[in-house]
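Escalated from tier 1: NAP holo job.
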Amino acid sequence: MKKTVIVTGASKGIGAATAILFAQKGYNVVINYNSSHESASLLCRSLASHGYSVMLHKADVSNRLEVELMVKETLYKFGSLDILVNNAGIAFDGLVTDTDEVEFDRIIDVNLKGVFNCCKSVIPSMISRQSGKIINISSMWGQVGASCEVAYSAAKAGVIGLTKALAKELAPSGITVNAIAPGLIETSMNSNYTIEELNDFVETIPLGRIGSADEIAAAIEFLSSEKADYITGQVLGVNGGYVV
Ligand code: NAP
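Tier 2 regenerated the structure:
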């Protein structure tokens, strides 16, 4: 039977690359998005036109009820849920003194509570089948902290803590939980940087280049595969050697 994966934040960037890879590998793919309806539905139509099994679902991951509905619809359409990729995320650049409470809460709500909401909604069906794989997208800034990204770094560090605790809690149920901590990846999340700023950053990356969304998708697919059955509670850095 085909396996089913939900990829949150799949309208662009890493999530879109992941949805494409899973579709090509023969999975049923749920393409989740929040605000980018145009690009998400274009991706969905394009994959469907190639005969891939896909479903589009709008849900704000920070909203528990919307997430629950997405999981219910997934189970209704595909019958089971094997993999959850918690990829949806937003960034915020600014001094901590310029970060107001509303902005701080939004970063935590989407990047951390969103992971909690999605995990909580998928876990009952995974426990009933005694199998499942959850991959959470953190960031190298969650490992080492980024200046002017206090809320984002805190949220992504929280994702790592959540991953480790949940891995221990769910291991007896046959479910693995891992995180990926990407380095600088070429997506719209970094579109606010100038070419000069990006070049300066690249000089500090041992492998001497920015990573691609496809390279993160490949790591996600690996952790979702049977090859990673004995890996749980781990944080895989995909960062060109920036954090070792
Ligand atoms: P991106 O191109 O900006 O894509 C972000 C995705 O998250 C979009 O599909 C967006 O969908 C979705 N999203 C945002 N808020 C959402 C919400 N409330 N509910 C559901 N979906 C939501 O960024 P990206 O670089 O691919 O980032 C993907 C993940 O990788 C994020 O968790 C990010 O923190 C992490 N990451 C990225 C980098 C990097 O350098 N790019 C490095 C480390 C970690 P809509 O547009 O439809 O709202």
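Residues 4-238 form a domain with the Rossmann fold fold (CATH 3.40.50.720).
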